[in-house]
Amino acid sequence: MSLDTDSLAGELFVALDNAQPPVALFSARYPAMTVDDAYAVSLAVLNRRIARGERVTGKKIGLTAKAIQQALGIDEPDFGFLTDAMAVADGATVSTAKGLRSPMVEPEIGFVLKQRLAGPGVTAEQVLAATDYVTPCFEIVDSRFDTPQIRIADTVADNASGAAYVLGSARIDPAGVDLAAIACKVSRNGELVQEGVGAAVMDNPLNSVAWLANCLGRYGVALEAGDVVLPGSMTPFIPVRPGDRFVADMGPLGQVSVNFA
What we know:
Blueprint: H1 5-17, H2 26-29, H3 35-51, E1 56-62, H4 66-72, E2 78-83, E3 87-88, E4 93-94, E5 104-113, H5 124-130, E6 131-141, H6 152-157, E7 162-167, E8 183-188, E9 191-197, H7 205-217, E10 228-230, E11 238-239, E12 245-249, E13 255-260
Helix pairs in contact: 1-3, 5-7
């Protein structure tokens, strides 16, 4: 069966707004599908979103944990795009009834850039210099597929499993802050459920953003001034239930919260 990038993008685009019925796994239907094929699908979905009026607000990185990479048989993370339709206000409530199948939250140190970063050759030091501020963030991840047994081609095509994101209200200058040492405590309904540190993200979130800039450079894409960049989760993902309230406390970086109904 030949691979029709535009048709596959159409399936995922419909599933963005209506999670039922879910999409049949691409990797099962097209075993020879490559990561580059999957990124072509992802970009085709993004172009549909832009055509209907969405605006790109940044980029996100997924699969930064080595254990997950090994499970998927890869040796590097993946990336996806953020749009204004994915942005959720700090403390707001997200409905699980629309467009979400099995959402999970991941606490991250969100970056907002003040300068353009275009790979190859971008370093962590250049990322630091190009960052306007950092802030606590929740990424809401989800899958539009009919099974959790996804492979790398599936998650890449599916915008690196990105669904939404919540930026905290704090704006912290990262200069002089040891982002690798930032500790994060995540509570669900007032009960501590996960803890992590910045070093869980490729040893330092700055390294993750540099990786992304260099990876995007292979596709002729840059990180732009004003972009929000989500570098990867500081803890394992946390499943969401209707009625949940999550708070991530990152000490000197402040807090971020999100509710689910």
